[in-house]
User: Fold this.
Amino acid sequence: MGPDTKKGVIQRKRSSGRAQIRDVARVAGVSAITISRYLNEPGKVAEETRKKITAAIDEIGYIPNLVAKGLSSNRTNVVAAIIPTITNSIFADHISGLSDVLEDNGYRLLISESGYSLERETELIETMLAHRPAGLVVTGQLRTERGARLLRSANIPIVESWEIGAEPIDMAVGFSNFDACFQMVSGLIGVGYRKIGLVSAPVAANDRTTRRRQGYYAAMEAADLEVHPGWVRDAKFAFREGARAMGELAEQHPELEAIFFASDVLSIGGVMECGRRGIRFPEDIGICGFDDLELTSMTNPPLTTVRVPRYDIGRSAATMILARLAGENQAERVTDLGFKILWRGSTPRPRCS
Assistant:
């Protein structure tokens, strides 16, 4: 195509608004059918042709109309994900796992944040489904009645992530938050701790936190140990909140022998507060966390924590959706990726570990 023709296409695009497939076809010197094949199944288009089309798209600023595509095929090539927050770094790995698998298979990831509000999540579910995604990933297994109803009737692959304790609406991937905390607290009891505190996120609209607390109480009960009401504290996901909770427990309950922070964001804050107060661990008190953030291996001494498969949860969720879209039969609706307790210097190490 000569420069005058290209110039004409670009001028028409600027005067009429959004560029169309036919405009890309003219600039690339191929048919509109080839452009459509490139957009939907790029692997079926020759490499040299793909290069021409890519250059044409860049030159005229073409943006595919995914909504129109969804209307014709009843779905887009977008997979949606709703996470509680973008400020907690554990979800960054989760998103990376999702994106890596989806991008490699020609899909795009659309992310929304619920802010730990089930009502907000329900609104987002409705909005996402209205845009006809190919699949949807949500966090946890706790929904409003309307949210659960929307997911059940969505007729697309749905994956609930990060908790596997309940019957899934469609599919679920993650680990048992109950078992992880039960084993951690049982391990602390096994090395001699009896008075163990717990700092976790608020349980409202968060079934992962609820299950972690249940695991804590169950382990204490199994060992016939009482729990003082003041030993269990809420703290939002922030370093300063972990520090605040640590300070309050140190002042109000000096009898505590160990504190389990059910989030490493909180445990790091607790460690910082220990430093300010001259509290040594494990000499004065045992400290442990949950998530295995990188910082936990860099404290002095390194923090005992629960390692969870953050990245793999995302990868598995995407893989499950793609398998369903490909028509593959999935015998298992629930994928348990497990967890691992890392015993480090902030607590004594069990003899069996």
